[in-house]
Amino acid sequence: MARLKAPQRREQLISVCHQAVRQVRLRCHHHRHHRQIRRCHRTHLYRHFGSKQELFIAITREVSDQTLRHWRDLIGPIDDPAEQLREIARQFPAHLKEMGDTYRVLHNRPHHQPRDRKVLAVLREHYHQMEAFFCTVIETGIERGDFGKVNPKTACWNLINTGLGYAMVTLNLAPFEMFDVEDAIEFILRAWPLKCA
Fold first, then answer.
1. pLDDT at 188 over 60
2. CB atoms near residue 63 (< 10 Å)
3. Residues 45-69: tens digit of each pLDDT
4. How wide is the angle at C-alpha 77 spanned by C-alphas 76 and 80, nearest 5°?
5. What is the 8-class DSSP label of residue 76?
6. 51-191, which class in CATH?
7. What are phi and psi of 30, to 5 degrees?
8. DSSP codes, 80-146
């Protein structure tokens, strides 16, 4: 097998980091074992990432790309913007289960370094991309008359905050009796003004 060039090696390491985090959490809860694994992986990681911060930024950007690609694939064949949002809501629990470890990394890092400008900047970038995606769907619905007069940015943040709340509770407090994200999105869609006449 040929040696990978640096950009491909970085991508491979991001993928391996996702898997390693998942395996460590599944296999062991012993603190000493975590330290041994971290020490072993640091040598390989820091050859391609200057710091944990650089690795976090790369993981965040990869999550953004994967999420948006997944959502675009889901809604591609669907013409109705409201149905597009419903389909994302229907698939969100499975998406969250698949990407759960990565989302934990994403949302726990800022708590450890709340003033890190680069970390906060990449998280803002992530959510601006989510906002742009949902605003496009909502604006299309307004233009077509599927939604009445609604502020696209406000509507989109209703959706994002609902998904984020669902994700935080599911990832951090499971098992926990909670709301159905599909029902919550349906509630939001019904609260928006009716179709234009």
1. yes
2. 18
3. 556 667 777 777 877 888 888 899 9
4. 90
5. T
6. mainly alpha
7. -85, 125
8. -HHHHHHHHHHHHHHHHHHHHHHHHHHHHHHHHSTT-HHHHHHHHHHHHHHHHHHHHHHHHHHHHTS
